[in-house]
Amino acid sequence: MMYTLIGMSLLFIAIGFIVTENNSKYLLAGYNTMNDEEKKKVDLKTYITYFRKFHVFLGFSFFAIGMLVTYFIDENVTSIFIAVYPILAYTYFITTSAKYFRTKKNKIGAYILAIVLIFIVVMFIRDYKETKLILNSDSIEFQGNYGEIVPFETIKSIQLVQEKPKIIKRTNGFSAGTIKKGYYKTDKGEVVKLILNAENKPYILITKSDGKKIYYAAKEESNEKLFEEIKTIPAK
């Protein structure tokens, strides 16, 4: 997580210095598509100064706040911060820089960012909600996002494991800190399904008859207890 914070912070700061008055006609979004008459109405020198100050502040504040959230709260919240903070910052920037850059595109950009922010927040709320493991008389149900119903007759084995496979790629899913839900490719080329609500060991590993695997971890409930409950169901 620290490397992500450092990398993005440096990127924000670099953006502030990459765009100058001389190259703005090529690199400055919105300005580079204006005709000569429209460009004359832009207070470019003042805007570039504000642009640089904003990105320097964004870079340093992004790193500082991100580290504080990581150490005093947890990495899951840091993941939300990484996604949401830049959008909030750029929405503020577009709104406050309108006095230098008076175009409809500028206002439209702020609206688009606000919509994107709302969408991301809704998605995070949905994906952060714990996917519960529900025991039915004839199946195991993962209730929530990326959930499914697995009939007992399709299960080859259920066991507790201390380690999950080494993941090299997320093929379809959601990852935020210790939360991982969806399909992931391992270093052995195998695609497994992870429903990890937290880094709660040992994991419950369900191997289906077709060889497909599901690794599950509850958020607060004991995985060992869930495992013992699962073992009693088929005997009923």
General description of the model:
The chain crosses the membrane at residues 54-73, 80-102, 108-125. It holds the Pfam family DUF3784. It comes from Flavobacterium magnesitis. It is a single chain. The chain is α+β, with helices and mostly antiparallel strands and 236 residues long. It is 47% helix and 23% strand. The chain contains seven helices and nine strands, in the order ααααααβββββββββα. It has helices spanning 2-18, 24-27, 36-40, 44-72, 75-96, 104-128, 223-232; strands spanning 132-135, 139-143, 149-151, 155-161, 167-176, 179-186, 191-196, 203-208, 213-217. The strands form two sheets. Strands 4-8-9-7-6-5 form a six-stranded mixed sheet. It has a three-stranded antiparallel sheet with strand order 1-2-3, with helices on one face. A hairpin with a 5-residue loop joins strand 2 and strand 3. Helix 1 (2-18) runs antiparallel to helix 4 (44-72) and helix 4 (44-72) runs antiparallel to helix 5. The mean pLDDT is 84.
